[in-house]
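Archive entry. Fields below.
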Amino acid sequence: MRQQTLFQRVAEAAARAPGKVAVSGCGGALDYRALIAGARGIAAALLDAGVAPGDRVAVWMEKSPATVQALLGILAAGAAYVALDPKSPVRRCQLICQDSGAVALVTDQAHAPQVPALLSGGRCRLVLVEGTARPKAGPFVRVRPLSEARALPASPLPDVSPEGLAYVLYTSGSTGAPKGVMHTHASGLAFVDWVLRTFDVSAADVFSSHAPFHFDLSISDLYAALSAGASVRLIGSVEAMSAPWLARKITEWGITVWYSVPSVLIAMLDQGRLEQLGMPTVRTLFFAGEVFPIAQLQRLRRAVPHADLCNLYGPTETNVCTWYRVPATLPDDAKAIPIGPVCDHLEGFALDDEGREADEGTLWIKGPNLLAGYWGDPEKTGATLRMDPRGRPGLAYCTGDLVRRRADGGYDYFGRRDHQIKCRGFRIELGEIESVVAGHPNVLEAVAWAVPDPKAGHRIVVTVIPRSGGPLERNELHNVCVERLPNYMVPEQFEIRAELPRTSTGKVDRNRLRADWEARERPW
Amino acid sequence: MVTEIESELQQFIREEIGASRNLVVNEDEPLFSSGRVDSIGLLQVLDFIDRSYGVNLLVDGEPSQFDTIRGLAAAVRERSHA
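PREDICTED_STRUCTURE:
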């Protein structure tokens, strides 16, 4: 019988080929034996500190083989990991750490000075630190070197249920605070197994790991690769930004399965001579996270004619739930790329405004990939994860994405029901930005809206109504955002107005804001 | 050692990239991995280096040197002496 947790799957692969390189890049490399031995040591340190199955452990590190080892160590101990964005401001990470109730933290030298700020108000009692830094984390918090934990002898691991929590991915939340999407070993593996069988992943593959670990693209990069005994090549955050360098390295590293957001591929086409270089070693190229503009996709198709190009669609809540294989030649008059049919182990349907099943409407998904819920928010869980509204048994998740059925049985995506946007692949709730800006004492009202951009997806503008008499500088608004939001959510422009245009029903007229803006100036 | 290249890079980042937000960074502070400057900013910095010193790090640079002003300046010196 197959082992049913993410850690057990990786450990099985390690037993088959212990000497093979499992993870490399970002200044290091680990074979399967060392990867698992270190993860077992980290698990021993967590268990020794009283970490129990279901507990959350935060990871605040730059990407490296040691980070992957930490994630596996947390899973081995039966705990769930909460990967914090190493580039996000400490205040946002602190909110997430506190919200998740993390009882332990694994961090690195670069983040050590900010550990006290990160842990304030939280429940953490153990900090494992890579390197020589020893942050003063508080009177009840034990601080240990990560190297010491890794070297601990393996201790017996607790029984972990496949239904146990494995990781919590925090995404932008519409009410102003990030929200934690919970996945179990079973929901993660349902997706991983689909990747393994649909794309014939083998130990001969080399996967890229471009996405950061708090982003759902990392689940396939890490666990599909490592459970198949393949190798993972990590791409660090600065490397990930250096498109021309990356375009050359893909071949040198022998990557066979590439996975990233479209904007990275577009940057490699634009600045990295990808059309000349090609990607000779890549057999399968996945992209996800945002709509791939068709003209750019035509270029990519020509640059890598030999590879399977696949558009993977799905919010963090469902892992990937539909996919589309790009044909060998795209018709010249193609307008947009479909999101394709629902994955073969899932069920999907569209409901119209009256809640009837229809060819056009909001996409709902059912099946084993679905999230277990939102961390600490049963109300939101109940509102989005509902009994199948068609009256059939089972839970269904409403994606909020508007789709249209195609003649071939797949779907086209054509928009959102709410104010969620995508910017360089990152999912952004405009409400979260609005609540941060509205937190400025001299702001009466703030409305965030998006201008479509062919390369970045969207760019964000915030229109602000100041309180009467209060002075307000764009500079201050920008600073408030920089302190509380990750870089990709910081608005490009602030517009200060005396009043907001409204529709006849009294809602803020976002279309009018956009039209006024475009008529006046387009600075990019 | 802080040379002219370091000061010029610092000035460019302060005045061109971080003009709206008082972005002041010392030579060893991470620019990109910290999220202070995004990928478009990285391209602007590399373009400035190309125009000012005739060194195209986009073509033959190593990202491990890109994250700090000191690293970028060292990359420029290595390549302009070669």
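CURATOR_NOTE: Residues 14 and 24 of chain B are 6 Å apart (CA to CA).
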